[in-house]
Design a protein that fits this description.
The chain has two domains: 1-30; 31-174, Glutaredoxin, CATH 3.40.30.10. By secondary structure, the protein is α/β, with parallel strands linked by helices. A five-stranded mixed sheet has the order 5-4-3-6-7. A two-stranded antiparallel ribbon has the order 1-2. The mean pLDDT is 89. Strand 4 (96-102), helix 3 (106-116) and strand 5 (122-126) form a beta-alpha-beta unit. The N and C termini lie far apart (69 Å). Helices cover 40% and strands 20% of the residues.
């Protein structure tokens, strides 16, 4: 008799597992891809400043205050979507915003900033994209929250939104000792 009910039992068990998997996926943020850098220092690098290529910026010079590292490019349509939020953050003085221009022609990047505004305290230029590999960058836009000691505390892939700032960035910023 139990052999007759076995296929139905297996079907119901598989259905329950599928339902549980779907419910777990709904709870997670699809842009929250775990980064091996979380809790570790920002990788060491030296990159030119987009505005003054003769000026080299070392990763250790960024320490001292928390900041957002925004990976962007002139060819990135989603970067235009999030750009007003970075302008707002920069104007409010809430947090320092550092640009990371990714695989972009410097002249195109400068034109883009002239057209859409420049909210960045400084802009690192990674035209070949080599440093981005060390950061684990998938594509633009991506945003990292780096604490005052230079430790990566959060990474978001895709356009940053006010909700993500409210839920993920501001609480981390309030935990900073200098605040």
């Amino acid at each position: 008799m139990w052999k007759r009910w076995l296929p139905l039992g297996i079907f119901l068990l598989l259905g329950a597992l599928l339902y549980a998997g779907i419910r777990l996926a709904e709870v997670r943020d699809p842009n929250a891809i775990p980064s091996p850098l979380i809790g570790k220092p920002l990788p060491a690098f030296t990159l030119p400043d987009l505005r003054d290529p003769s000026r080299q910026i070392d990763s250790t010079t960024l320490r001292g205050a928390p900041f957002l590292l925004n990976v962007w490019a002139s060819w990135c349509p989603e970067c235009r979507v999030e750009h007003p939020l970075f302008e707002q953050l920069a104007r409010s003085g809430t947090i320092r915003v550092v640009g990371f221009n990714y695989k972009d022609d410097p002249d195109d990047a400068k034109r883009w900033l002239q057209q859409f505004g420049d909210p960045y305290a400084l802009i690192l230029a990674d035209e070949p994209g080599r440093v981005a590999i060390d950061l684990g960058v998938y594509a633009a836009p991506e945003t990292f929250f780096i604490d005052a000691q230079g430790i990566v505390r959060f990474k978001h892939i895709g356009a940053l939104t006010p909700e993500i700032v409210r839920r993920e960035i501001l609480p981390r910023l309030q935990q900073e000792p200098s605040r």
